[in-house]
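Researcher: Structure prediction, please.
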Amino acid sequence: MKIYGGKTYEQMSEKAASVIAAQVIEKPRSVLGLATGSTPIGLYGFLARWYKEKYVSFAQCKTINLDEYCGIGPDHDQSYAYFMRENLFDQIDVLPENTNIPNGLNPDAAAECARYDKVIEDLGYADVQLLGLGNNGHIGFNEPAAAFVPGVNHVMLTESTINANARFFASRDEVPKSAYTMGIKGIMNARKILLVANGAGKAEILEKALFGPVTPEVPASVLQLHRDVVVCADEAALSVISQKHPEEIEWFR
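Model: Predicted structure follows.
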């Protein structure tokens, strides 16, 4: 595991974006596992800029997103399909038919989970899987539980996750209560994992995920078992790790 620390969110975002860009330059036909949420917006901005400056092309890439809310369609402005178009897909040259996101409008949970599992498996899993980190340690929408769930699953969101996402909706009542999410198998079969975190609110859970016991109660802790994990975080998110494990951080300024 490599932990890179930057003083600011912008520095962290640029470093994380460089990991993805390097992957695509080295292997133009890369499968990119992508994430949503506020943290990746900065790195997506760098990727879009570098595409426009002709440093990198995504024309041969395929993408698989981690998750999607249930009950809202791809044109809903809070769907993850909409988020990806707004923040990345419409800004680069990836082909729409090469992008993959769970269908949040499929009412048959078993069928949708099986379909998306097959999509992930047929692509051979991600060359690099981008992850954010939830306040409770969730990755994708794999919430704290009694056991790790390997496959794509239909998950009921915890109160803490609903509360954290309420800021994106007009009211808390509008936040979807469930989602389809890539399971732990799909994440862990990626050849490289890129975890991004920013802000003081992530400091304690980031340290717990990277240095605490491996437990499904902290889903991100499973990343300790992966052979190639890169963490990019800002100074605030690394504040606990910098106190307890300062030797583990490589700072870039």
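Model: Residues 9-26 form the longest helix (18 residues).
Researcher: Thanks, that helps.
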